[in-house]
Design goal:
One of its GO terms (molecular function) is feruloyl esterase activity. The protein is an alpha/beta fold and 311 residues long. It has nine helices and 14 strands. It has a single domain, classed as Rossmann fold (3-Layer(aba) Sandwich).
Amino acid sequence: MQKFRRGAVAALTAAALTVSVSVSLSPAQAQNKDSSSLSSLSGRELLELSSALLQQLPPDGPAQNGGKRHVQAAGMNREYTLVLPDDYDPARTYPVIIGFGGWQHDAAQTQSYERLEQAAQGQAIVVYAQGINNAWGGAPYAAAPLQSDVAYVRAIIDDLGASHNIDRDRVYAAGLSNGGGMAAALACHAPDLVAAVASVAGAYYNPTVSGCANGSVRTLLMHADNDDVVHYDGGVRHGAPYKSVRSLFYDQGVRNGCTMSAVSSRQQGNATVFAPNHCQTQTEIVKIAGGGHTWFTNPSATNWVVTFFLG
């Protein structure tokens, strides 16, 4: 709305010099001014006329089509990108899907490859989170501690709950690489906040998934067998150790009430899906042959993740 207001003033000023316009000075009384009379106005009179026009505009209000929003978390002003369904119905209750990008990816870049709203097809409100210096807590290069990022996600949900009709029992988190680690961190440190998480090529640095709170969270881990950035079998990166996919699968499976001694597999295209035979809360690995370190397109990580969340 502020952009519209500034545009209205600029358009009115230009019109005084070039074209004939009709301006409403009050709802009850209107006067038409031709180009000669309008262009003869003094600067003060033109300013007063502009003010009169702006008084007829409605006041600013909350954005109804999404966009940037701001929250306070851990003493910092943080922002996130909100994407509402095209046919958003304020009377309807929606689940929320939060997307986290990889290291050095801002929210706009994350949206460009995750495209969660496309797969959700109007069935969820989608958020793209913005990390401090484009990084997420728990990683050795993070600019903010993990606890502050968890507080940030809580602030997002509180903000959405105050402004939109959301189902707090259906909050989901997905991410790539460092952002996948952040999604896993929510399952570890805030199981009360999220119903399910999905990590794609996730980086599980020890602080991210250590010292977990009690609580079960549906968990999907997608990772390529040839990932040469964050290895499937774990390793050291940026001078810090990170867990293997199987290690996190085991730890989360135990928290999810799974019998981790009996795990079955099934083939689905170029992916092998591993899941415990007996599990109170769904826990899966999708191991992709030759996928590299990326948000996968074959199979589509976007479709797989959203289907896992929404069914």
